[in-house]
Specification:
By secondary structure, the chain is an alpha/beta fold. The longest helix is centred in the middle third of the chain and has 19 residues, at about 315-330. The structure holds adenosine monophosphate and magnesium ion.
Length: about 600
């Protein structure tokens, strides 16, 4: 069995970013820009009015107020889309609409509400004169030429994912088409003698093919173009024929036919016509998964098409699609953010993990009082597709957890959140754990100093069973909390302290939002039972054993050796005590936001 990460790495190693194509901007939503876009024009092209009102010379309004209006002679009017034909000379004004170019001579616009226009109109006074009721500063209600976009500037960078606002900016530059990485074509084939296409009568013994549709919809959702091949029967000939039809696609996704049943022949067919990796992936649902490359000659050309063989059970096929096909599609589209965003949530039911696989449990996520909660959607059978319709997340239970209990903190992949959010929400947090007296604090100090040297902004969190030093009885801050304040903040010229009452000790994941998001790295001392990435400090004089189980650890720092203690295949990376630079490199590679 291989891990989810190994399987994903393999799948991604077989797909490449596709070539760019130029196409109409409206067809590019969600695609990755393949060229830098510069502006050849100023936007707005001219100084213009931000309000409906009167274009004036600011100096003419000096001293104006409701009780003593300044009267100006109205010499014309200008609407959006036309050019002013007159100049605003001292003592005059031009009536102007939002977006209309500012006339020569004018340097401010007074909105209708600050003039006597309405009262003039109602008393049918002449409009060749206007009373200005307030003083206008130079530039009031004027939008300056080029204030949005200046000609010659880089406006959209290559690699940008085009959202509606970027499509709008392209249009504002006058571009009707642009260069983007093309969308992958994904051929989809359902297999199984039991399947009937929707729209056909359902005869006894048959079921409707739902996978084709769920998978095609997923392909579209992530930006690919689904090509539906239909239903392949459980015979070598039928499958060969159908697979042949999908070989001009960028990827082939099949469902069914990869488990151990007698009729599960997708893997046999694949073994004949390509390289095949057939794996059991350490996950549930979705253990059987085939992956390979189909080689076929199309005319005189030889083509290699990556193939992902998903299990047939509808839930398994969707969840394996999410974990493996989705990132492959995103990579082909040139996207950088491939991971589904995850949140930490308190699980509201028990989940047992009987055979040490990574469990993806369907959950409904709610947010109450600043905390996420996840509750199971009901029966979790891999054939129960309605469990997916209720779900907005997948709770990920690690291989090493035999069970999670209601109230435990779990990681949840948010099914309907965009991948770009995932990058932002990933916390650069590492806990330093170890037995007491192992040197955790010393390692913390060394790492903090090392990261400071590297220009990173570091926050440190300390776990304390007892109270805290700054909370001294008798201090003003202490008096305030005694009086009942739920939080006390002490602000000094160069430091800030914040003490807040909590109903229970917070999970470490709940602390970073309080610290703030400005830090490149959050180093935590203690919290050995949390599920944040942990590095254990091991001291040989305190015994050979580790405090945490090796699978839970990101790395071990030791002054001894772990050779006799931990089997090779279970051993995390081991660093020498004192080799701070190497340990920092390791953390930087895995966790640190790019340090500028
Ligand atoms: P298989 O992986 O082919 O052994 O299929 C496992 C289970 O998923 C069987 O109960 C199939 O009937 C069901 N199944 C396979 N393909 C589909 C499909 N396209 N739509 C709905 N159910 C399917
Ligand atoms: Mg089958």
């Amino acid at each position: 069995m291989i891990s989810v990460e190994e399987a994903l790495e393999k799948v991604l190693s077989y797909v490449e970013v596709l070539e760019p194509e130029r196409k109409p901007i409206l067809d590019c939503l969600g695609q990755v820009l393949a060229e830098d876009v510069y502006s050849s024009i100023d936007i707005p092209p001219l100084d213009n009015s931000a309000m409906d009102g009167y274009a004036v010379r600011a100096e003419d309004t000096r001293g104006a107020s409701e009780s003593s209006p300044r009267y100006l002679v109205v010499v014309g009017e200008v609407a959006a889309g036309s050019m002013p034909s007159k100049e605003v000379k001292p003592g005059t004004a031009i009536r102007i609409m939002t977006g209309a170019p500012l006339p020569e001579g004018a340097d401010a616009v007074v909105q209708f509400e600050d003039t006597d226009e309405v009262s003039r109109k109602s008393s049918s006074e002449e409009l060749s004169r206007i009373g200005i009721l307030c003083r206008a500063k130079k530039g009031l209600n004027v939008r300056c030429r080029g204030e949005d976009i200046a000609a010659g500037n880089l406006i959209l960078e290559k690699g940008t994912v085009l959202r509606p606002q970027e499509i709008g900016v392209l249009a504002s530059l006058g571009h009707s088409a642009t260069l983007v990485i093309r969308r992958p074509i994904v051929a989809i084939l359902a297999t199984g003698d039991e399947l009937v296409g929707v729209g056909q009568p359902l005869v006894p013994g048959k079921i409707y093919d739902s996978n084709t549709y769920a998978i095609a919809a997923e392909v579209s959702r992530y930006g690919g173009i689904p090509r539906i091949l239909g239903i392949g029967r459980d015979s070598i000939q039928s499958l060969n024929e159908k697979i042949g039809e999908g070989l001009d696609a960028d990827m082939l996704v099949t469902s069914g036919g990869v488990s151990k049943g007698d009729y599960d022949i997708v893997k046999d067919v694949l073994a004949e016509c390509g390289e095949i990796g057939f794996w059991t992936v350490c996950m549930k649902p979705g253990k059987p998964l085939a992956f390979g490359v189909i080689k076929k000659s199309v005319g005189r050309k030889k083509r290699k098409v990556p193939h992902l063989g998903l299990p047939g059970n509808p839930v398994s096929s969707m969840i394996t699609f999410e974990q493996f096909a989705r990132p492959a599609i995103l990579k082909m589209m040139g996207k950088k953010a491939l991971a589904k965003p995850t949140i930490r949530a308190i699980i509201e039911g028990d989940i047992t993990n009987t055979d040490g696989r990574r469990v993806f449990a369907r959950v409904m996520v709610t947010r109450r009082g600043g905390q996420y909660y996840a509750s199971l959607t009901g029966p979790q059978g891999s054939g129960i597709l309605t469990s997916m319709t209720k779900a907005d997340g997948l709770a990920v239970i690690p291989e090493i957890s035999k069970e999670v209990k209601a109230g435990d903190m779990v990681e949840v992949q948010m099914l309907d959140w965009g991948e770009e959010q995932g990058e932002a929400s990933k916390l650069p947090i590492v806990a330093i754990v170890g037995k007491s007296e192992s040197g955790k604090t010393v390692l913390m100090e060394q790492l903090i100093a090392e990261f400071k040297k590297r220009g990173a902004k570091v926050a440190a969190v300390k776990h304390s069973h007892a109270g805290m030093e700054i909370d001294h009885p008798g201090k003003d801050s202490w008096k305030f909390s005694q009086a009942g304040s739920d939080a006390v903040c002490i602000s000094a010229p160069d430091r800030l302290a914040f003490i807040k009452n909590v109903a229970r000790e917070l999970n470490i994941e709940e602390i970073p939002p309080i610290i703030g998001s400005e830090f490149d790295l959050i180093l935590v001392e203690g919290f050995k039972r949390s599920i944040v990435p942990k590095i254990e400090v091991h001291r040989k004089e305190l015994g050979d054993d580790l405090l945490c189980s090796p699978e839970e650890l990101l790395a071990v720092v030791t002054d001894g050796s772990l050779d006799t203690l931990v089997a090779d295949n279970r051993r995390p990376p081991v660093f020498r005590w004192g080799d701070t630079a190497t340990i920092a490199d390791f953390i930087e590679r895995n966790f640190l936001r790019a340090v500028s």
